[in-house]
Amino acid sequence: MIKNRSEVIKTPAHDIAIECIEAGITAAQPRRVIGHTVSVTGNTLHIEQQSYDLGDYSEVLILGGGKAAGQMAEVLESLLSDHLTGGVVVTNDPTETSHVTMFEGNHPVPDENGVAGAERLLELAEQAGERTLILTVITGGGSALLPAPAGTISLADLQTVTNDLLASGATIHEINVLRKHISKLKGGQLARVAAPATVVGLTVSDVVGDDLDVIASGPLVPDTSTFQDAIDIIDVYGLSVPESIDEYLTAGIDGEIPETPDPSETFFEAVHNHVLANGRTALEAARDVAQQRGYETFMISSRIRGEASEVAKTYAAVAEEIQATETPIGPPAVVLAGGETTVTLQGNGHGGPNQELALSGGLELSDGNVVVASVDTDGLDGASDAAGAVVDCETAVPSDEARSALANNDVYPFLDDSEALVYTGPTGTNVNDIHVVVIEKDDERLQGNDRAHTGRSK
């Protein structure tokens, strides 16, 4: 899975960090997840504890979008066989399917293919009737990959506001409030369009806390946010939005455009949502691998958020505590966490939150027995082609250059020179980020020439 494994593994601590990452990503793969949660016996579809008699439906569709949606659709198509009548999925990682039409869209900024796919998806949903069963695959990245701009909002205007939001430091919850109110699909609106069909949401969560109204901007669940909330977020972050978006939101506030559907809408009674995998799925698999290798483990949380470079300092402090007091566990130890950190852009460099977390952690380390790794489980960190990075105390040297790279949001070149970047390519899943801190015992450290760094001169 790690394409440059031989370069990034420099010590046993690097090795176990990479093993944990691989185990986590593998555990969240759609094929594995669906294999554990979805099955078909005769004419009966089983999803976790619920069952659906496929004979009750005249058509069965697969609709959805997100980074892992293509693989989910492929697996579901093979399970449903002749029961499946069609579908549309928008993803940036398309697969081969016979009955489901794949649109390859762009992430994190939407493109023409995403718009075309979302429009075709809405057409199929609108044509659905009472005897239609819609399996909706929803994964991280769905907000960008299923744009469906509302009113007169153009794709160019949507791209502009998306770029500004991503650079603003706004949380994913805040970003998606605005996205819901400039889309025809998000914020429960897909459920409204699909009524009276039976709709089953199959979700792989990339959101801290698995908030269904945030994952892919909540196309199947009620929305309690408002047009006014969207305007407030624009004001808080000082965004200058295109005129078409300002006019559409203003019309919403004035009651000229219906609000996104709230919990009082009865059509949500025909919607059944299942979260099949999340960040904890990945962390538990990583923990199992570490324990099998003889490490004590401590899982901090699967809900980490905040500025990436600041979160890293907490991880370094936890490692120091383990070394000094063997609290909460003693070395050799693996500390695990996950979530979705953010970066408030100050510069115009190249990198991503996982790379910034790793390099910031490296700056805090003073002991060669500690390694910090941080990767995005989808394999693409920020707008870069790396999944993240794995570092030790020697990575962030010279420290002044490392600090300058962080200040300019340009950590990718620095980490590349240090051979610390982790490359996986698109992984086919997306359950947030995995953070791994490995603390070895003093006598387990590789010394001298065994630590053969071939990158940046130390």
Describe it.
This protein is of the alpha/beta class and 458 residues long. It has two domains: 5-9 and 279-450, MOFRL domain (glycerate kinase, domain 1), CATH 3.40.1480.10; 27-277, Glycerate kinase, MOFRL-like N-terminal domain (Rossmann fold, 3-Layer(aba) Sandwich), CATH 3.40.50.10180. Helix content is 37%, strand content 21%. A six-stranded parallel beta sheet has the order 6-5-4-7-8-9, sandwiched between helices. It has a six-stranded mixed beta sheet with strand order 10-11-15-12-13-14, sandwiched between helices. Helix 4 links the parallel strand 4 (59-65) and strand 5. Helix 2 (12-27) packs across helix 12 (279-292), helix 8 (172-180) packs across helix 10 (227-236) and helix 13 runs parallel beside helix 14 (353-364). It is globular. 54% of the residues are buried.
